[in-house]
Write a structure and sequence with these properties.
This protein has 4 domains: 198 residues, no CATH class; 125 residues, Fumarate Reductase Iron-sulfur Protein, Chain B, domain 2; 140 residues, Rossmann fold (3-Layer(aba) Sandwich); 120 residues, no CATH class. 55% of the residues lie in helices and 5% in strands. It contains 30 helices and 11 strands. The radius of gyration is 30 Å and the shape is globular. It starts with a helix and ends with a helix. It binds iron/sulfur cluster (2 copies).
Length: 701
């Protein structure tokens, strides 16, 4: 068997050399950009969290298993990779032992003759084969030919995916050929357990040549597969665990990604700050974590299938956002790496490639792509390899907004209003306390410090203070807190916008200004606990202000109200005989995982019958207002709020409920249009959960 060992080892050396060269190339390319020391630091200091993430996300396949059929198939195929490594130890052992002793009857020391191991190997190989059949069926059923744009595979490299399925199939059938032939020849290490291999051993002829061919084919296909993997989207086999390791914990949602220049948090006070370095303008501005995202995308399209922009015919697909950057990075790779090594380029084509703007009419990404994003997080939530689409979009928006001054013109009005008046509508700050006059009890307004008996600072928010529909929620919450005996105070004219719309637009400088002003007010007032009605304010106060030194215990009003109902301090007794469907605000649900409390409150209101929309909780569909989209025109495709209301109407509701002032506006506008066109009944309205609760509590009191 000497020739078998020689061929096997020569093939191995060649394949490892080719694959190794590619890995080196990928490493060099990924490290041409700025560093991301915070990712390493986090992983280094949160070892327990990272181990848990690997166990749950990588080995447990948490996200994939939510997609039952393809998830189960992927679970078995992935575990086949790990378990069948033992078969490769046996295969290499057999060719080496065969060369030395003439008999390839190698077994792994200690465990290598256990029937349980033999069973596990055969079982996972069969499960893997079934997984391949499932994958093939799913790909055919969901092919772009059959579903067009609605296919999650639309835009993916389909040929490469089929090639990989074919290669895995080859690995599995040659595994059984080699093992069956070994069993027929009496060289197989297992006398029981390996049910398929032993059965094949009973039917295959005794033939040393067949066993040798089986071993070489099994090893050969694996080596070809290795080379294909490192040159294709299947690179994710190796990069996905790394991407999970270095992704923002717990899930790259909630707080917007911190803005960094050369790996350090941006300091707008720094006189040496180069204004051209804000955000990402060219591919060379991408950190190695960004490249790791490119390398990890499996092109599965789960993100695309959930994206509200893509689903309403806008040009944004989160998958293509990653793939377009990856393709450009590979096209520019030799020049990027040469530039990094200090070589100057004079060729105009090369320079054009290197300088190609990441965003622009002639850029890698069309501007409509990044401005279509609502930051809803549906893509990040679904991505099985933890790619951080919103972080990419935000960094591109930052460059566009702060360096190029290029963003949808309508948003410019909002920016000016924030700069001049501290709220997006440009209204006088004195109007912020007007709603208080409409109540029949006193509300304390902070002058310098929090009143001694006030437990919570009620953060009213710009919409809650100034927008008519949202003011109803504000008054309902204030009244409920008053009835429950919870002492609170408000900032009134001292409150300014949290800065969320500025930050999501990419105006980090303006966000910093507003945030610092608010943090100073809150800290000076001695605020410890905050309740907010707006999920965007809630998210910013709870998750982003700590980045700037403002740390408070922040709750959303639905969390506090659900607790007060639970404790018996609020008792809904008057029946509301209505069928209600609840819309999950993205910044409350997906970004902050508050799904149950609004539903718990409604469940306590007598008479209410709830009916979920098809897309709810972590798959909830955005209203279209997030990511500063509230302040931009929606000119492309179907309006997102209309799409959401169409879905709500399929439940035939009497009322649509939600827990966000911006969702109220967006859904309310779409409902009005539907009423005008006769598609919705006149009595249909959208209300905040707090309004339902006060109605049931107050009518009885
Ligand atoms: S955050 Fe939402 S809108 Fe933006 S790309 Fe992801 S899914 Fe699409
Ligand atoms: S970004 Fe994630 S969810 Fe989207 S296609 Fe790539 S791997 Fe799939």
């Amino acid at each position: 068997m000497l020739w078998v060992a020689i061929i096997g080892l020569v093939m191995t050396v060649l394949a490892v050399a080719v694959a190794g060269r590619r890995v080196l190339f990928l490493y060099k390319l990924a490290t041409v950009g700025p560093p991301a020391p915070e990712r390493v630091e986090y992983a280094r200091t949160h070892v327990a969290d990272e181990i848990k993430a690997q166990l749950v996300e990588v080995f447990g396949q948490r996200k994939l298993l939510k997609w039952t059929a393809s998830g189960v198939a992927h679970f078995f195929v992935m575990w086949a990779f790990f378990i069948l490594l033992t078969v490769y130890v046996e295969a290499y052992g057999a060719i080496i032992q065969g060369a030395i002793t003439g008999t390839p009857d190698f077994h792994i020391p200690l465990i290598g003759t256990w029937g349980a191991l033999g069973f596990l190997q055969d079982f996972i190989a069969v499960a893997c084969l079934l997984g391949l059949v499932a994958f093939a069926a799913i790909r055919i059923k969901n092919s772009p030919k059959a579903l067009g744009r609605r296919s999650r595979f639309s835009g993916s490299h389909l040929g490469g995916a089929w090639l990989v399925l074919f290669m895995i199939f080859n690995i599995i059938w040659t595994l059984f050929l080699a093992r069956g032939a070994a069993a027929a020849n009496g060289n197989f290490p297992y006398s029981s357990g390996a049910f398929v291999s032993l059965a094949l051993g009973d039917v295959l002829p005794r033939s040393t040549l067949l066993e040798e061919i089986g071993l070489l084919l099994h090893i050969g296909f694996m080596l070809v597969f290795l080379v294909i993997v490192v040159n294709s989207k299947h690179l994710h086999i190796f990069t996905a665990p790394l991407n999970v390791l270095f992704s923002r914990r717990p899930d790259a949602m909630g707080a917007a990604v911190e803005m960094r220049v050369d790996g350090k948090p941006v300091d707008f006070e720094d006189e040496d700050l180069d204004p051209e370095r804000l955000g990402r303008g060219k591919i060379a501005d991408t950190t190695w974590k960004g490249f790791l995202d490119f390398y990890s995308c499996t092109e599965c399209g789960r993100c695309q299938s959930q994206c509200p922009a893509w689903n309403t015919d806008k040009p944004l697909s989160p998958k293509m956002l990653i793939l377009d950057q990856r393709d450009h990075a590979f096209a520019a790779a030799p020049y990027l790496m040469a530039a990094e090594a200090g070589q100057q380029h004079k060729d105009t084509d090369v320079l054009a490639l290197l300088e190609k703007p990441l965003v622009g009419e002639e850029g890698v990404i069309h501007p409509d792509v990044i401005w279509s994003c609502t930051n809803c997080g549906a893509c990040v939530e679904q991505c099985p390899v933890d790619i951080e689409h919103i972080d990419h979009i935000l960094d591109m928006r930052r460059y566009q907004a702060m360096v190029e001054s290029s963003f949808p013109s309508e948003a410019g009005v909002m920016v000016k209003n924030l700069e001049n008046k501290g709220n997006p509508w440009g209204m006088s700050e004195m109007k912020r306390a007007d709603w208080i006059e409409e109540l029949d009890f006193e509300v304390e307004v902070v002058e310098d410090t929090m009143p001694a008996d006030a437990e919570y600072l009620f953060w009213v928010g710009c919409a809650g203070a100034l927008e008519d529909r949202a003011k109803k929620t504000t008054k309902a919450v204030a009244e409920l807190l008053h009835i429950a005996g919870v002492k609170f105070a408000v900032l009134g004219p001292m409150e300014a916008c949290t800065g969320d719309p500025a930050r999501r637009l990419g105006m980090e400088y303006l966000f910093n200004m507003l945030a610092q002003q608010n943090i100073e007010t809150l800290n000076d007032a001695g605020v410890k606990k905050i309740v907010a009605t707006c999920p965007h304010c809630f998210n910013t106060l709870a998750n982003e202000y700590p980045q700037l030194g403002g740390t408070y215990e922040v709750v959303h009003h639905t969390q506090l109200l659900a607790k007060l109902v639970d404790e018996g301090l609020l008792t809904p007794v008057t029946p509301i005989e209505e069928k209600i469907t609840y819309h999950d605000p993205c910044f409350l649900g997906r970004h902050n995982k508050v799904y149950s409390q609004p539903r718990d409150i409604m469940a306590k209101v007598p008479g209410v019958k709830t009916q979920e929309m098809h897309r709810h909780k972590d798959r909830g569909f955005c209203c279209g207002a997030g990511g500063a989209r509230m302040w931009m025109e929606e000119r492309i495709g179907k309006r997102i709020n209309t799409e959401r209301v169409d879905e709500a109407l399929t439940t035939d509701p009497d009322t649509v409920s939600t827990a966000c002032p911006f969702c109220m506006v967006m859904l309310g506008d779409a409902i009005s249009e539907k009423k005008n066109s006769g598609e919705a009944k006149e009595s249909l309205e959208v209300v905040d959960v707090a309004q339902l609760l006060i109605k049931s509590v107050k009518d009885a009191s």
